[in-house]
Amino acid sequence: MSEPGRALPVQRAGRLLCWSLATGMVTAAADLVLDPQTAWWRSLWLLPWYLTGLSVLAWAVLRARQKAAQRPDEDDVSPERWERAA
After folding, report:
1. 55 in Cβ contact with 11 (< 8 Å)
2. What is the pLDDT of residues 34-54, one digit of tens each?
3. CA atoms within 13 Å, Cβ hemisphere of 73
4. Which of 84, 69, 81 minimizes the C-alpha distance to 3?
5. Cβ neighbours of residue 41 under 8 Å, at least 6 residues apart?
6. Could you tell me the mean pLDDT of each successive run of 10 residues in the chain, 86 residues long?
7. pTM for the complete prediction?
């Protein structure tokens, strides 16, 4: 299991990624179906997509750090550990 301190930021970044992607799809569908002509809409509907790109990078970095922290010590190759894993 991972440390609770490392899992929470990864989990939050993953949730941000999912929600920003969902919001981006909803705003893209609204732009296609409703075709709003207001000036502020052209800037607003792109924001979730920018947030998706940033959250992908954040999640990937945090997940890589979490995975690196989970690696077992290479010095610990005792058979007792293998029996516990099996």
Report:
1. no
2. 999 998 998 898 999 999 999
3. 5
4. 69
5. 31
6. 74 96 95 92 91 96 91 64 62
7. 0.72
Q: Are 59 and 17 in contact, with CB atoms under 8 Å apart? A: yes
Share of the chain above pLDDT 70, in %: 78
DSSP state of 75: T
Contacts 24+ apart (CB under 8 A), 47-55: 48/20, 48/21, 48/23, 48/24, 49/20, 49/24, 51/16, 51/20, 51/23, 51/24, 52/17, 52/20, 52/21, 52/24, 55/13, 55/16, 55/17, 55/20
Q: What is the DSSP letter of 20?
A: H
